[in-house]
Amino acid sequence: MIDACNVIAIPKASSRRRLAENLGALDIRLTPDLRAALDRAFPPPHGATPLEML
After folding, report:
1. Model-level pTM greater than 0.70?
2. What is the DSSP string of 1-54?
3. Of 17, 37, 48, 51, most Cβ neighbours within 10 A?
4. How far is CA 18 from CA 24, 29, 46, in A?
């Protein structure tokens, strides 16, 4: 999840089903408590971090 001013994520939508899933994300609202829980479960990096290659 990207959480920065003036930064947006552009998700890939290679099918209509994926597009519908991506649009459904617009209805999700993250409360401060949920955001804190996500940060505890998935700590943000402290500086530049290379992306994992799949």
Report:
1. no
2. ----TT--------SHHHHHHHHHGGG----HHHHHHHHHHSPPPSS--PPPP-
3. 37
4. 10, 20, 31
Place of tokens 């099918």: 15
Q: Record the tokens describing residue 32, joined without a space.
A: 């401060």
Q: What one-letter code names the amino acid at 36?
A: A
* Side-chain half-sphere exposure of 15, counting CA atoms within 13 A: 3
pLDDT for position 43: 86
Residue 38, amino acid: L
Q: In terms of Cα–Cα distance, which of 4, 30, 29, 25 is closest to 13?
A: 25
